[in-house]
Amino acid sequence: MKQGRSETVSAGDIETFERDGVVCLRNVLSPDEVEHLRKAVRKQMDQLGKSATGYDFEALARQVWDKSEPIETGAANRFDMQAMKDLVRGDVEARPLVEGGEGKGEGLFFYDVAAWKWDKGVRKVAFDSGLPGIATELLGASYLNFWEDTTFVKAPHTRQKTAFHQDLAYFQIEGEQCVVVWIPLDPVSLENGAMQYVRGSHKWGETYAPNVFISRTSFRSSPEKICPDIEAEPAMYDIVSFDVEPGDVIIHHVMTVHGAGGNPSGNWRRAMSLRYCGDTVRYFDRDGAIPQVGVSHDLGRGDRLFSSDYPIVWPKPWPGVSLADLYDRSGPETELD
Ligand SMILES: O=C(O)CCC(=O)C(=O)O
Hints:
Blueprint: H1 11-20, E1 22-25, H2 31-46, E2 55-56, H3 57-65, H4 81-89, E3 109-113, H5 120-128, H6 131-139, E4 144-154, E5 162-165, E6 173-174, E7 178-184, E8 195-198, E9 239-241, E10 249-253, E11 258-260, E12 269-278, E13 282-283, E14 312-314, H7 323-326
Antiparallel strand pairs: 1-10, 2-3, 3-4, 4-12, 4-14, 5-11, 6-13, 7-10, 7-12, 8-9, 8-11
The structure holds 2-oxoglutaric acid.
């Protein structure tokens, strides 16, 4: 593959991405690359309750809606979940976003971030797979920074939906040259929580406040508008979803409104989401953005993302180089056996 060109993205894919704000690409990742991500997700999930960054949003939703249940997040301390509970309970319009009947409490909506910092397998996929070239081409960027990875797992019989939202205001960035690559690690369809995207919403010209995922309630400090209530009137919107297999990826524009159902099925729905920024994006410590873990930079508003916290992953400094090795921050490797 020549630098700056990707063999996996066609002119038609670029047209779809620009028109719809989302495109599904088939067979982009190899079985080994998918397995690297699965392995990292397993490690993250093993640490649930013990890690500072892993959460179960299914349990959290129960604790929010049941007034008598205390908030319990184990060692996770990235968010002030009691404040989130107070926020949701104080929002007169808030309602549970669940599906799949009564539910017996066996579901799990697992969320974690930043595996790339300790897991070489994730770095291999995020930095050295076909993805950086594809993202660069879709964005028409001249170089590409990696922003972060986020894990979203819905175990069988998980009732919690993912509230419709737009990603920009969750990130400390300004500018729209940014994509999110959603990578299924299991076969995913509407039966087990496929992602749903509002086609064309990246061109609505609005920045929406980040919500708390289990409800449309926004983080109070955020100045932006609330995302429209897509779920209340789905027929009003042009919603698209894709049945995907491991190896496929769905890439959406940072302004595209998206959400997902629960997973009432008996099958797992594991995914990792990788975020990339192009050269026109600037740093902006936006009010209401989710605090990042383990960043050491001192970037200010308007700065380019020049920091080892945001590795430049395209173009590569020389062909054949392993950026996963270059950005090794020590710590255990999770390579395939
Ligand atoms: O997987 C999910 O339920 C949410 C994913 C998402 O919102 C994202 O990747 O931006």
